Amino acid sequence: MPLDKGFDTNFATPKTFGLFSLLMTRRILLLLLLLLMAGDIFGQDITPTPTPARRRGWLSRILHPFSPEVVPHYKDSRLRGLALDLQITPQTVKLSEVRQLGVKVTLANLSKRPVPLDFPTNQRIEIYLMDSAGDILAKWSDNHAIAEKPVTILINSQERVEYNETIATRELTPNKVFIAEVFFPQYPELRIRQKFLAVP
Predict the structure, then answer these.
(1) How are beta strands 176-184 and 136-139 bridged, if at all?
(2) Is 10 exposed, middle or buried (0-12, 13-18, 19+ CB in 10 A)?
(3) Band of pLDDT at residue 44, cut at 50, 70 and 90
(4) For the chain, percent of residues with pLDDT exceeding 70
(5) How confident is the model at residue 181 (pLDDT cuts 50, 70, 90)?
(6) Which of 20, 95, 130, 167 is packed most tightly, with the most Cβ within 10 A?
(7) How crowded is residue 89: how many other Cβ atoms within 10 Å of its Cβ?
(8) Which one is predicted more confidently, 146 or 13?
């Protein structure tokens, strides 16, 4: 059976091969560029840091009308727009290794106006360690001196204040769930709690 050489005579010209090589090099360069960009995106070692939830936009409210509001509503109008975030480290407490529980509280102002907070003493926050029934096992203020020192803190719009403290874990028992509750004694509505597990 004779071979059809029509393809070779029509398409096997130096001009055609030059066109294919130009298209191929463009595609290869584009593919390499995409791989490099994807490597940069997926290769980054990002440690997750919880940030306070932001106020939902109008598009989010239209698309998800029944989802909960992210900014809590307080009875005290001076506190409107403030949001609390609590981090406990470590999340699972090994009592044989951990003597102090790290507590990080973030108070963010999500409103469009500055919020002043007045404090009569140098104590800003209080931390309670409680069992699952709600009984208080340890108080942060028991191990800290509190002095009369009036001060006003102004939290500007879209800014936040962080408090990093520790509390002793000597009252905890293994294999139980405990609650860490943080609140501002001057503003009892500013309160947040989180559960954690204690293991031997």
Answers:
(1) unpaired
(2) exposed
(3) very low
(4) 72
(5) very high
(6) 167
(7) 14
(8) 146
The secondary structure of residue 71, as a DSSP letter, is S
As to burial, measured by CB atoms within 10 angstroms (0-12 exposed, 13-18 middle, 19+ buried), residue 116 is exposed
Q: Which of 146, 142, 143, 136 is nearest to 193 (CA)?
A: 136
Q: Look-up: residue for tokens 């306070």?
A: 52
Lookup: tokens for 116: 């002043």
The reply to whether omega before 150 is within 30° of 0 (cis) is no
Distance separating alpha carbons of residues 129 and 171, to the nearest angstrom: 9
pLDDT for residue 52: 44
Task: Return d(Cα 74, Cα 85) in angstroms, integer.
Answer: 16
Burial code of 17-39, b = ≥16 C-beta within 10 A, e = fewer? eeeeeeeeeeeeeeeeeeeeeee
In contact, 126 and 153? CB cutoff 8 Å: no
CB 108 within 8 Å of CB 71: no
Single-letter amino acid code for the residue at 31:
L
Q: By C-alpha distance, which of 155, 196, 159 is closest to 175?
A: 196
* Cα-only R_g, the chain: 30
Would you place residue 49 in the very low, low, confident or very high pLDDT band (cuts 50, 70, 90)?
Answer: very low
CA distance 53 to 84: 9
Distance CA 103, CA 105 (A): 7
Beta bridge partner(s), residue 105: 86, 163
| End-to-end CA gap in the chain | 84
